Amino acid sequence: MKKIAGVLAVASLLFCQSVFADQPTTVLTELKGGKRVTVELPVIDGANDEVFQQSANHLLDNAADDVANKAGRQGRVSYEVTLNRPSLVSILLKGSNGGKTYYRAVNVDLTSGREFTLDDFFFGGEEREKLLGGKIENVLFTEDGIAVSSKKGAPYEQKISYETLLPVARIGEIGRLLTVWKLTENSHGKILNVKQGDLFAFKLNANPSTGFQWLHTINGGAENGLLKTGSSFMIQHTQQAQVGTPGTEFQFYAAKVPGTYQLNLSYQRPWEKNKGIRECNVTVVVK
């Protein structure tokens, strides 16, 4: 009987772990008062790793104290949760003193207890600078994009959608930040049901050096209601990046307007009239 009880206890524990694994992060408020300043301190609780949780809370405590100092240790420090994922939380701290407000973003990764940056989810370089319009600092992650301030302490007024950044997304990590439905050539002839605003991506074997490309056409639905937002090509780390090496192409799409769309992918040489040597045709229903 004890053995059965032990097995049930383990099963219950595993069940609880699986249930809580994909839940949003809990952010509590601790009030810290002083003679001339009141601080609403964000405190994270219920994370899977208590050590990383402690590191994250220490980081938030230091950031809130810094904002209070920047506000002259007067007035009020408040906060807003702008992004909440199972292991990622972004918080905007605001230090208000009279008519002046000092802003500071804190983007916390609960798998490390440290701050995360653009580099963790998007490749750097010229292509990213082209998309963002220059060097970007002071980034605040939000539910639908990143917000940028012109300088430290300033409001985060400039907004850039995640959709814009998809061409430079790190495929292995982006799923922690965004919900991106993943498809392969096995989706051929099937129906994909998504909601308005959803993103999805095709993972396709390709070798650009042969001249073959994955070309796409979209029929049906509203004009520009289903859009290709970008693509990237990757070679496995185990392979040497030489000319002619096959790899994987990722194509990203955004569901903009409700409707039924026929998305056709064809692996072919653009200058040839022949039918593609591989086809992937999917019906996309946007609700």
What does this structure look like?
The chain is an alpha+beta fold and 287 residues long. The chain folds into two domains: 23-166, Heat Shock Protein 90; 179-286, Sandwich (Immunoglobulin-like), CATH 2.60.40.2020. The protein is built from five helices and 17 strands. The chain has a six-stranded mixed β-sheet with strand order 1-2-3-4-5-6, with helices on one face. Strands 10-12-15-14 form a four-stranded mixed β-sheet. Strands 11-17-16-13 form a four-stranded mixed β-sheet, with no helix packed on it. The chain starts with a helix and ends with a strand.
Keywords summarizing the entry:
single chain; 287 residues; alpha+beta; Immunoglobulin-like; 6-stranded mixed sheet; elongated
Quick structural overview:
By secondary structure, this protein is an alpha+beta fold.
What secondary-structure arrangement, pairings included, does this model have?
Blueprint: H1 2-21, E1 26-33, E2 37-45, H2 50-70, E3 75-84, E4 88-97, E5 100-109, E6 114-115, H3 126-132, E7 139-141, E8 145-149, E9 156-161, H4 162-165, H5 171-177, E10 180-183, E11 191-194, E12 199-206, E13 213-219, E14 226-234, E15 247-255, E16 259-268, E17 278-286
Parallel strand pairs: 2-3, 10-12, 11-17
Antiparallel strand pairs: 1-2, 3-4, 4-5, 5-6, 7-8, 8-9, 12-15, 13-16, 14-15, 16-17
